[in-house]
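Consider the tokenized backbone below.
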């Protein structure tokens, strides 16, 4: 079971989700609202890939330099977005990331918790 939220701290908006997911070693996969989400956890790096019918949005969170790419499938067009990781905590059953989109100065908080289905 995967449960979490994406909060726009700047605009005080929150998007919550809860669904079944698959955890395999350092990879978590789940779908919500027809968007496939994949989280890959490596040493000092978290990669979040969100893929919908029209787009692929890839975040690479690191303590030093983070990055984001938004790819529109139909137009074969992509945009790189500079982000700053404010906080990145990885625990056995949860991940918490706070980050800022540098151009817009918008701050976000992403949290995900994993639990076993019994």
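A designed sequence for it:
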């Amino acid at each position: 079971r995967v449960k979490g939220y994406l909060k726009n701290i700047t605009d005080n908006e929150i998007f919550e989700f809860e669904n079944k997911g698959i955890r395999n070693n350092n990879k978590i996969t789940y779908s919500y609202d027809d968007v496939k989400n994949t989280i890959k956890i490596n040493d000092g790096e978290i990669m979040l890939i969100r893929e919908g019918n029209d787009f692929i949005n890839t975040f690479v969170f690191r303590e030093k330099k983070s990055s984001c790419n938004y790819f529109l499938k139909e137009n074969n067009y992509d945009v790189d977005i500079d982000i700053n990781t404010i906080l990145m905590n990885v625990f056995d059953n949860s991940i918490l990331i706070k980050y800022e989109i540098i151009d817009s100065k918008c701050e976000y908080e992403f949290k995900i918790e994993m639990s076993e289905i019994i």
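The chain has a mean pLDDT of 92.
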